[in-house]
Structures are given as structure tokens and as C-alpha cells.
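Re: export button greyed out
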Amino acid sequence: MNKQTIDRPDVRGNPTSVSTPQTQLGASIKAPSRPGERATLESARGAAKTRPLFEREIVRKAVRASFVKLDPRHQLRNPVMFVVEVGSVLTSLLFLQALFGKGEASAAFTGAIAAWLWFTVLFANFAEAMAEGRGKAQAEALRRTKKETLARRLRQPLQATEQERIDTSETVASTLLRKDDIVRVKAGEFIPADGEVIEGVASVDESAVTGESAPVVRESGGDRSAVTGGTRVISDWLVIRVTSNPGEGFLDRMISMVEGAKRQKTPNEIALDILLATLTLIFLLVCITLLPFSIYSVNAAGQGTPVTITVLVALLVCLIPTTIGGLLSAIGIAGMDRMIQANVIAMSGRAVEAAGDVDTLLLDKTGTITLGNRQATEFVPAEGVRIEELADAAQLASLADETPEGRSIVVLAKEKYGLRARDVETLHAHFVPFTAQSRMSGVDLNGTVIRKGAADAVQRFVESKRGVFPPRVRAAVDNIAKQGGTPLVVASAQNETARVLGVIHLKDIVKGGIRERFAQLRRMGIKTIMITGDNPLTAASIAAEAGVDDYLAEATPEAKLKLIRENQAGGRLVAMCGDGTNDAPALAQADVAVAMNTGTQAAKEAGNMVDLDSNPTKLIEVVEIGKQLLITRGALTTFSIANDVSKYFAIIPAAFVSTYPALSKLNIMRLATPGSAILSAVIFNALIIIALIPLALRGVRYKPAKATTLLTRNLLLYGVGGLIAPFIGIKVIDLVLVALGLA
Amino acid sequence: MSAVIFIVFIVGGSAALSWPLGRYMKWAMDPPAVVGARRRALDRLFERVTGRLGREQQGWKRYMVTLLAFNVIIFAVSFGVMALQQYLPLNPDGMKAIEGSLIFNTAASFTTNTNLQHYSGESTMSYLSQLCALMWLQFVTPAVGLAALAAMARGLVGRAPGNFFLDVQRATFLIMLPAAVLVATLVVLGGMPMTLQGAAQATTLEGATQTIARGPVAAFLAIKQLGTNGGGFFGPNSAHPFENPTFWTNVLSTISIILIPMACVWMFGRIVGRLRHAAVVFGVMLALMSMRIACAAWFESAPTQAFTALPIEQSTGNLEGKELRFGTAAGPLWAVVTTSTSNGSVNCMHDSLNPMTGLMPLIGMWLNEDFGGVGVGMINMFVYVILAVFLAGMMVGRTPEYLNRRVEAREVKLAAVAMLAHAFFILGASALFAVTPWGTKTLNNGGAHGFSEMLYEFSSSTANNGSGFEGLGDNTPPWNIATGIVMLLARFIPILLPLAIAGSLASKRPTAQSAGTLGVEGGTFAVMLTAVIAIIGALTFFPAGALGPIVEHLQFMP
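Workaround output, generated via the alternate export path:
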């Protein structure tokens, strides 16, 4: 955003030069801070944000998918649920045996267990299918923007006249475009694919992708050359080089990440999978060894019958972490969904996970910490000049200045000194725009020349016209700079005699609420570093006002890269966002790199996420989504394991009471019969998956806090809660079974 | 009341003593880069003994291979001496050849610091076997554990593992040997025999002649207690009046069991430079062990089942199988402490403990981390710490980290295999013996108690404890071979896997610590760690426990 200031830090004193890129770039950056535009933005992604948890259409599809996913090849991806499915098949066979011959237990009991085991698998499938369905619906909503269009592909794009190009061009379907194809798009047409502008300038309506209603300018070269497929050119024309093959665009990549079967597991998910698989093996061992233990006990006690296979399978399924096992992939997919809902497209699940680990945030000053542009806040008159005189001159010099800074001077003059804006035309004033040579702008008015600009430029101007640059003004200039402001000196000249009128104090306005946000981040253990092209004095002052932990002043791309490397060498994970080609090395180096959608292709390729809203503050949201993903996994794993304690108290007495009647004293829930006890545990185990689907899809509530607080809270909620809840649940189910006469 | 004071005095006293000892052990095992001339001279001496082997800086793989190779050699020497004892000198009593499976079992037992004894020393082993096959291993095997712990701790702070030969010598000569000399001297003062003369001949008041066995008991006892060994000089172990003559030798012996395992935690904390974390781990271990001591003391204060209905004094609790000179509290305390630490010496008969009291030693061996064997206890705890860190790390929303290094798939896999192996040896082997004549034919008790006996034997072998529930005719080829294999695998898998984890963590770039990082130094983590140990342990072993001691207890409950 402040690319310009980074490229040319010396122009800091001259708002006119800064403004050129910002009128355009700033438009999208500032959007969220302007209430009116915020609304449009929200509504653009409203489809996802307000989507109810269980949308009828998605539920219907998910129910069907739950059955399709019974395919053992699919279940093999998830060892825990695969074991449940094998158990379901086994008990179903035992049920058939009981039905048609002599079974090990009553057909009704075996059948009920078998049915509920199948439900367990189906419920887990349903959870995954729901997450997938929601993700796909979200992606689909975005994909709809990517209409199938006809594209004009140029076969002789270079060194050809306009007519030759058109003559040799061909019309092809947008889906047939390959990487490096060159297409020409004119006003009113849709851009057929993601690409880079190589010729032309045009305004493009990107609202379909970003929700930003104001059109943006796209032109070849520089930082504004990237275009997204599905957006519309509304004026002029562009020649675009296609940068992705069909199926490789952002949207396609995103869709593949919310499809369970294609999804690549993330590192933490793999580690958790290993833990869950091992727990499954341990419980398999526990259940298998119970059979010999039971046979020994029956022989030793001389009564009862050995535990049945049905009961052992039921015990096994209750013990293995089915709750987390069944919801694990839904949690992962839902994490991606939430990213998409935040209008961020992650290039991999790994990137989302890494976002939770970030220790250092590099934030660009402009647009993230401060509002895009500086505003006039004060007039400091020179000795012997009335403040009204200074305000008047400043206003005159700025009337025709359409930069935000210029406008803010007019506004200040009006608000503080009641000077109405005057019409430049009626004054017969001649506006003198900023040039790189003069480095001043101003107005020529009936022989009076008014100029405003950086102190040194104005000093040269004044001294060339027999004037002096008063030391008091110099002091004021230095003072303003020290406070982090930008001093603009105003001078006027009449009859070849110039005098300095005073100084305008331009100030960076720190966004409201950003300080609290940084304090919150600090409590989470995340360090914020402000990146700015400003000089160290200005940077320090803004850093102090915004409450960031550190700042990098006079930042060059090299300095940024160095800063990232230093932080990483200190064991920190660094996140940053950027949009320019010169950001690309730093983006590539950062662990979490969010490229702005308005940025260049190079920036997008170097980053591992793209923010469709091009809102740098989004970085903070991205970190929270990453953390929420991991917390949801950890919480449900803890819950799942804690659940097991109660299941032992339900099943162990029931399974062995015929051998050792004394074990009925362990039936502390006072479940009606051994059969109802086991069935209740199995039913609870299945229903808890359904009950937790909303949690898995939404993620656990995340409140930024330090690690100890989070751990205590989650341990109490999901650990202690997980210990107690099933005792109540199993008892209730048992009571229902008794009431229904099924016990 | 006196029981409580006694227990608090012993456990508290040991904990207090472990602090300075841990400091000394760090100095001995892992001297700082700049050390005094005398300390350097010691290491020079050790390096000279092993020559080039002791000087090289070993990598993780090499350290582990050397550790294994060293154990293969001590196993082979021990096996060879016992197998050839009838041809070798120092066999005045003409001990015969030992049965093959028993030699295997005994060699495995002493190599693994288990000291499970399926034989009676005085009637089986020659003096040479006692000295060269068994005795010296009691010094060396705890040293192996200390070496492994030191190496693991170094890895956790990103250092190379060191040199195994140097570490083993440091542990043997700077820690085990001086400590043994000190304790031996103290117990001699307490009245324990220390002589190389043969058995004493005494004439009783009735004029009969009595042969009273004696020997270098004090020296033997000291290392037996300190090195979490547990193999007794006499058959009844520390219940014998000469192996534990007075209240004070009993106090000293009990403290000696837990002192070095406790100090290992502090040594670990000092090497990794995180004493606060070590304090958390120590606290969790102490809490878990104290819980079992309290339970054992409580259940043992009830009379044994056979006496409840009799019109006799009940307030003394269960005195069956106890030495009256120590009272009821000293027995369960020792029983818990000895099984908490993989020591395995006894001062009362565990078979005679009330059922629920008997469950406490079983739980100690199932968990096998508080405080565990010399060196290896802390290593076992490390596996639980990794799991706790993994779960807790996710709950704070970050990729889990331990001591600033990320715990990822590889570490979780290794830790999980270590846990699985522990459960597999206990449950799998017990299941095999429960339904085959190998087990069922050797029981002296039927019912749930018989099951407890088998379960105990494999728990003891797996935890490298060595104590027996007794009542089991365990000197049979199936028992000898099965427990021998279990002891070997259950010793080296849980040493090598955590070392591999440490090696893997050592190679990672350390991460920075912040308020967002999971702290392993506070009360919340202590609760998390305790919960992980308790729940994983309970979930794995509850069914087996329910069919053993628990049902035995419930059967007699009104």
C-alpha cells in the first residue's frame, strides 16, 4: 500500500506525489473503515456469513454422501472410523447368525448394537459431508462469478498492428485457455482467466470477487497488473497473459481443499492421526486381551459365560476416540471454510495451520495501522503572520488539490477558521500542480504566488525571491517532524518578494481501535512490527501512538527481508501481507504470507494466501482462524478421551457381571440391565458425534488470551466436561430405553 | 497418626535430600564447559580407560548403538559366567549347572536392572556367578539409565548426546559407587552384617546348634536399594532381620529406594536449564506416588479378610506377611515406593496385602514414571510429557512445542509406540498365560487372586521392577523365557524411543517463547500432565485391574 513511500522515501514531505497511487489502491484498502462501503462488502460475502449451519439443500446432499462414504476405501483414510466400520460388519454378521441360528447373544441385542455402530459411521460421514457441502457451496458462490465466457485469443500478440492482431485472433471458450495464452479483453467483456496485463490500461469491476463496488485501474507493468478471472472490464481494453491452466486457479485450488477425498492432511492433523491410531491400537489390545482374561475368570469363578464378541466390539467402539476421529476431517475442512468466509483463499491447509503459530506480525503502516492518508490537523503561523492569514493562504493553495491531504487542508480551514471553500474559476486563480522538479504545488492569483511543499523546497523558493526562511519556522518544522507529523511549509510571494507564512501540520491518523487490537495480540504472545517508509522519528511517534511493539522505518524490500530472516533465526514464525512485486521476496520468506488480491501476480505467487478484500488488517483474523482450528482439534480430542472413563463404568460391570456378580457395585450409574448399559453407551457414543457437528463446523469459541488462560479454560470445559457429560448422557439414554420397554 | 508422620518423614526427607543430590549429579554427569582442574582430571581418567571410544563426540544413532552394544556385552558376560559356573573357580559349595531358560531369564533380569529372581541365590549361584554375573551389573545398569537420561536431556536443548562410555563411567564411579559406600557404612552402623566370613555357628539355649547365614550384606543392600535393583542377599529380601535389622535401617533403606530416582528429575531440570519445569514434573510424580501411598496405607489399615469376622483386635490392620518390628505402615509404604521406582525389593509379602493395597504396586508399575527406575523413570515420564504437551499445545491454538521445539508427527509416533509397547507387554503376555497351562498350571491361588499373580509378574517384568507377587511357581521354562523376553524389550524400547525423540527434537530450530506458547512450568500444565497419566493409565489397565484386585476387593465387600 505504501509501496510508493517505500520506493521513494524522500518524497515524504510531499503529499501530492504520494497521493497518485493511493487514490486507486487506497480505495480498496480504506473500504472497511468507511461504514457505507463496509455494508457492500459484508453483503458480498453475506451469502456465506449468514449461511445457516444446516441448510436444507446441503443437508440433503450430505445425507446421501454419508452412505456413499461407507466405501471402505474412503474409510481407510481414517483409521478410527475404519475400525468402527469393521466392527459394524462383524456385529451385523453376528446378528445374522443369531437370527438364523444359534447366536452368542440375543438377535435383538446384537442387532441393536450393529445398527448403532452403523449409525456411528454414518454420523461421522455426515459430519464430513456437511463440512464439505458448506465449503463447496461457498466456493461455488465464488465460482459462479467465474462465468464460462468466450475469449479472444491472440495468435500474433507482439509486434503486430491492431488490425493484424484482430485478423489473426480466434475465439475460444475460456475453459480452453492455457497458461501463457494471450487474450484481448475490451470494455464490457469478462476477463476469462487469472492473468497479468501486458498491454493497456482499463478500469475493471472486481466486485464479484472482492465485494468492492468501486472499479479499480489495471495496467501493464508495476503493481497493478494482476487481473482475476470473472471480473469485468468497464472501460478501455487490456491485453492479458493467462497465468494459470484451467483447474489451477485460486478458486479451483480452494475447492479442492474442501473436498475430503482430495484434501491433503496438514502436519498437525497427521500427528494427531498417529496419536488417534495408537490409542485405537491400545484399546484394540485392551479389548482383545479381555477375551482370554474373561475365559480365565469364568474358569476360575466357575460361573458365567465369557464375554461375547458383540460386547467386545461395543466396548472397543466406545473406547476408541470416535468423537474426534469422526469429526477430525470435518474440523479441517471447516477451518478452510472459515478462511473462505473471511474472503481469504489459502493455498494449502498447512498455511492455515501455520497461521495459528505466528509469533510476529509485520504490518504495513499505511492502510493497516493508519488511515490511508495524512490529514491536516494544525496551522502554525510564522512570526508576524496571523493564523487566519496562514489558513487562508493554505486553503487557496489547496483548493484545486484533489489529493486527500489537500482536501483535508481545505476542511481544516473551514472547520477551524470558518473559511468557506471558494471557487478557483471565479478567483481567476491558476493552479500550479506538483512537479518532481519544483516539489511544490500551489496557486497563482492576481500576481500573488502561493506555494506549499516540503521545507527544503520552500526554502529554496523563498531564498530565490530575496526572502528568508525564519528560524522559528525551521523550529516548527522540526518539531512537527519529531512528533511524527509531516510539515508542509506555506509561502507567498508578491512582486518578487517572498515570505514564509507558516507550517501546516499533516498527521497520520491512527485507526480507531487498533491500539486495543495490538494489546490483545500482545497478550496472545504475538509481536507486532510496523513497516513504514517514513523516517525513524515519524515512525517512532506513530508506533508509540498505535502501540506496536517495534517498527521498521525507511523500509526497503531488502530491509524487510532481513527483518523477517532475523525474526525467523530467533525462532519466530513471521506473518506479513504485501501486494507489490518488490514484496515478493519477503512474502516468499515469511511463514504466512497474505497477498492482496489487488497486488501483482508475483506477489500472489510468493504468498500462501490471497485476501480477496485486500485488507491488510485481515492478517489478525487469519491468525485467529488458524488458532481456532487447532483448539477445536485439541478440545475434541481431550473430550473424546475423557469420555472413556464413564464408558468403562457402564460396560465393564455389564460385561462381567455373570462371572463376578460383585462387579455390579461398579455400576455406579445404576443402569437397568447389562444389555441396556452397553447399548446406552454405544448410543451415547454415536449421538455425541451428531451433537458436536455444530461445534466442529463453527470451531470452538476463541477469545484471544494468553496460553495459560486458554489451557485452563479448555481443560475445564472439554476435559472435566468430557469426564462428566457422558455419565449423565448414558444414564438418560438408559432411562429412555427403560421407558420404551427396550431395556 | 504415627503412620502419617512416618510416611511424611520418609517421603519429605527423600524429597529434601534429592535437591542437593540432583545438583551433584548434574555436576557429575554433565559438567559445565569450564570446570575445575580436579573435575577435568576425572573425565580425563575416564577417557583414558576407554581410549578413543570414550573421547569421540557421538551422534544420536551412535550413542544408541553403543548403548545397545554395551548391554549385549554385559548380557553375554553374565550369561556366560552363569552357564559355565560348574567349570569355573570360586564355587566352594559345588553349585551345579543351571537350567538354560533360568540362565536366560536371570541374565536378562540383571542386564535390564529388573532383578526378577526366579531362583534362590544360596542354592543356585556360585560365588563367581554372584559376583561376576550379577553383582557388578547392579552398579552398571543404573548407570546406563543415568547415561541415557543425560543424553536425552542434552538433546532437548539442542546439544549432541555426548559419549556413552564417558557417561556410564561418570554414573558408575561418581554417583553409584560413592553413594553405595556411604549407605553401606551407615547401615553397618545400624547393625547390618558386613563380613566375608562364612555362616556363624551358634548354640541355642536348649543346646542345639544353629547355622546363621551372614556375609557382605551391607555392601549388597546399599546398591540394591540405591540402583533400583532390588535383588536381595537373602531370600526374604529386606524382610530378613540381617538385611533390615532395625527401624532405622528400614528408614534408610526406604529413602535409598527413591532418593536417586527423585534426584534424576532435578538433574534433568538442571541439564535442560528449566528447574521450574523440573519442579512441575517432580510435583506431579510426588502427587501420584503419594496418592498411592495414602491409598495403600488406608486399605492396609483394615484387617485381612479372613480376620474380619473373628473376635480379635482389629485396630492393628492387616499384619499378615509383615515384619512386626516395622509395623503396618512401613510395609505398604515400602511396597508402593519399591514399585514406583522399579526397585522391587520388599520388606513384606505383597501377596498378603489386602486386595486394594495390592492394586497400588500394580498401578505403580503400570504407570512406571513416578519416580521410576534410575534415569529411566524420568525418561518414561518424558513420553507422557510429550503426549500432554501435544494435547495441551493444540488446546492453546499452536503447533505443540516442548522446551521451544516443535512436537510433530515423528515425535508423537515414537512416543505413541513407546506407550503401546508398555501396554502390549503387560496385557498381551498376561492374556497368553491366562488361557494356557503355562500360566494356569503354575498358580497357587485360584480366582481373581490367581489372575493378579500373573498380571503382577508381567507388570513387574515390563516395568523392570523385579518384585514378585509370589504364590506363583514361576521357575518354569515358559515363565523364564516369556518374562526374559519381556524384560529385555520393555527395557530397551522405552530407552531408545525417547532418545530418538530427543535426537529428533535436537535437530529442530528452536522457537521463541511468548505469552502464546504453552508454558510447562505452571500449575495448569501440572494438572494436564497428571490427568494425561491418570486417564491413559486407567483406560489401558482398568479392565485388567477390575478382573484382578478390584473384583477381589468387591467380592468381600458387604
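The mean pLDDT of chain A is 82. The button fix ships in the next patch.
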